Description:
alpha/beta, single chain
Amino acid sequence: MNVLIADAMPVEVRESLQAMGLAVTEAPELNADTLPGALCGVNVLVVGDTRVSRRAIEAAPVLSLVVRAGHGVDTIDVPAASERGVFVAHCPGFDAAARAELALGMMIALDRDLVGAHAAVRDGKAGDAPTALGAGLRGRSLGLVGFGAGAAELMEAARALGMRVAVASDRLTTSLAAEAGVYHAADLPDLFRHSDIVSLHPDEPASGVVVTAELLALLDADAIVINTAAPGLVDHDAVRARLEAGALRVGFDVFAEAGGGEGTLRLPLEGGSGVIATPHLASRTRQAATAAAAQVVRVVQEFLLEDRLTSAVNLETEPDAPAMLIVHHANEVGSLAALLERLREGRINVLDISNVVFSGGRAACTRLRLSAVADPALLDALRRLATVRQVEQVSLG
């Protein structure tokens, strides 16, 4: 089986895939235009940010799996892949630890005004370095919007520093909150009222604006808002007004320009130390790249060894099947083939199939999710097969 790695990846990806017996080719120089010409004979394609177009997928007759070593599949033509039966997977949460550590670093830098202190030393005005520094993190309350992997990582770090943690998320139940030792906020206003620092980690990728003027008004004047999650989560006009009034500090690793696209941070940076802005540093770290590499290897291993690729994003999670057929039969060559042939003659498609073999290897049980209910005549025909011992049909309608 041939694997093409079409972007620069840590060496561990190639070495781990080769250890599985796969033939691996690395071509980081490929781009969206040249990729289609490199896919003949490729079974597994691993990409980073290189776009995988319909033309590329249609130029790959034996392609079975596309894995993006990053979060999201917006760079892959998923409908084209689904039409040709190609699995598409990605690496959600690969930079969770990196984002959590960056958020924590921004909190400390804003609380200690490290930007202002550095500027004073750089300009030879060390005596003018800020002296009215923050209250520190210990004993302060961190509010987490969402409870994904990044939020969980940040929660552990914050608690180790002696911070109190509040969470607003549908993923968190009252019992889980009690077990984790965090305050389960009833809603976002409740969270903002209980927080000195708010960090954004929304449960849903496309969450729209989360931080509004109304929510910012619930924060104290020395509050901090951190966004290392996704652009478009913050009302920048509302944030700008609070910054200009000296009533907020912010740290952003992702941001949005006018019109909603990613681009220049539209906040008052000049003359103030209440803003830290970085250009997507979390996802660019060696830490994140190593984590993504490990996930890529796990996806390929699952593809090779497991019955179902659970990490694929383009599978029907629950095919609409009106009936389930449960067949006990002898574990012999041709037993399943005969069963499927009778279903074909009855013009019934099999949407999903699983087969288990009992100890000793003489008997097996097969479960088939059917596209239609089998009539009594077809069931009788199945029961008359020489290797079949029992046939039951369960209605799923």
